[in-house]
Specification:
Layout lengths: L1 E3 L4 E6 L9 E6 L24 E3 L2 H11 L3 E5 L8 H13 L3 E6 L7 H6 L2 E4 L8 H4 L2 H13 L11 E7 L2 H14 L7 E5 L10 H17 L1 H4 L4 E3 L3 H6 L6
Parallel strand pairs: 3-5, 5-6, 6-7, 7-8, 8-9, 9-10
Antiparallel strand pairs: 1-4, 2-3
Length: 253
Amino acid sequence: MRVEKSEGIYGPTLQGEGINIGQVVSFVRFYGCDFRCTWCDTPFSLGKDKGGEFQVMDYRDILQRLEAIGCKNVVLSGGNPLVQPKEELDILVTNLKDSGYWIQVETQGSVHPSDVMLNKVDFWSLSPKLPSAGEMEWRNWKAIEYFINLSWNQRDFYPDHSQHIQFKFVIMDSADYEYLKVILREYGATFAGPIILQPEGQQLDSEFNYHAYADQLKKLHELVTKDWDFWKYYTVRVLPQYHKLIWQKERKV
């Protein structure tokens, strides 16, 4: 498997996004992605066209590094971790579960997971893309339907959906926000998991700007509360990227 070289495996640190915000975790950042989002905050993990580098590691190497860190909550991220060879990912998650790990996978949902991963992964963090991400990226909703249906079909097995899946959306502008509402109207109640809305913070400035980010967060809050007749039918949360508030654009923290 290809693991991103500059960050790779690190922790313990804090989960910075979604409903598990603040959770102490270790990260495995895989190399490679099938998307090229305009506002990507980890371009070094995408591919050589973005200046990235990787190291090849098998599951034993990864487990050894995680055991040295000593945190039993692990996040498989990227890039898109699901572009790694399926058989190798299956072996990794199987060994992680056998070793007592709680596993979260962060992916945009463009690649379907194997049955093994569906059975072993504890929490799926899906980040479907909206228009600001790019033409190819936001027209990928047919692939996302797999996870939407998964959240609906498994609602009886996971009454507290927050323990299994979330849908996380980066909102850059009003076009993103309005398009998301159109999508939610189309799929309706089948969006059974929590919906996380967070402002886009990568393109604010070359240096992180607290005031500009807080302003974006405030505007998003105002949009949701103003539209409460729409959002009251969903489990919605407006959240910041916690790690950016603490470390700004610093990496491997």
